[in-house]
Every structure is written in C-alpha cells, then in structure tokens.
Amino acid sequence: MNAGERRFFVLSGCSGGGKSTLLSELAERGYATVEEPGRRIVRQELGNGGAALPWRDPAAFARRAVALAQEDWQQAQAADGPVFFDRGLVDAAAALEHATGKPFLESMCSPRHFHHMMFLAQPWPELFGQDTERRHDFGEAVAEFERLVKAYRSLNYTVVPLPKAPVQTRADFVVSMTAV
C-alpha cells in the first residue's frame, strides 16, 4: 500500500454536483486540496486559444487531464495529512476511454493511487449550471456520472455517496469518514 492509498481521497461524480464547493470548504478548514484538472485545462485553453477542450477535442482534453492528474498526485506526496482531490486520475482515464473507445482504466489506474473509499457527488439538478468552463447539459453530466460510477467500481473502490445537504454538512460528513 502506498502513502497515497491511505490518505488521498477523491471527490468525484456528477458535474455540477457541488464537488468544487465542497473542496473549497475543506480548504477553508485547513485541509490540503487539489483543484479539478479539467477546469484548469479549460481555463488555460480558453486563455490561449487552444483546442484541447472537451467540446472541441475530447481526446486531447482527456490526455491533458491524465497528465495533469498524474502531476497532481506526484506533487501531493509532499503534503502532510489527508489530501482531497476534486476528480483525479480515474476520472481522466475514464474520459480518455470514452473519447477514444480504447481501454485505459486498468493500465493507468493500477496500482491504486487513492484511498479505497471515494466520495461521489450524485446528480443534483438544483445545483447544476452551465458556465464558460462547463458547457454540457445536465443529461450529459448524468451520463458522465454513470460512466464514473462504473469506472470506480470496476477498480474496486468503495463508492460513498455524498449527502444532498448544505456544504458544511457535506464537509462534516467527509471529515468524519476520513479521520486518519
């Protein structure tokens, strides 16, 4: 078991399900956090006129997300205590599989780099919204959610649904479940 498997926790699930808000709350409480690779890539690509965008070139976007997720994991090794990731390598590998139709999950995600317990944001229409970085609709977000559930389960992660509750309650839940 590597150090990350014991103390690196993934927040994944439905786009627009409150993961980034939860991550911000955990950061405010003093926990180490890692922002979602996809959002960072979209901001960079929009800023420099790049094409590695999920709505323009999903495979290029997913490849960049895989590389960034791997970098994030390496950099997080230096952190003390638990580290919470807004998405991560499994999400990026699942996106690459979806974009290319080729298998990547097992080769990229074994051995496991994160704690066996991962937190899943469920589809929450009341929270979902489109913006400059999130252009897909709720139906596409739900389809992605279903792919992610399947991906995490195929890798034997314990999927823990996040409660549909205010962010402070969600953060309390995550902290209580990850006491390390």
From TrEMBL:
UniProt xrefs under InterPro entries: NadR/Ttd14_AAA_dom, P-loop_NTPase
Residue intervals of the NadR/Ttd14 AAA domain: 9-170
Pfam families tied to this protein: AAA_28 (PF13521)
Record-given protein name: AAA family ATPase
Naturally occurring in which organism (per UniProt): Flavimaribacter sediminis
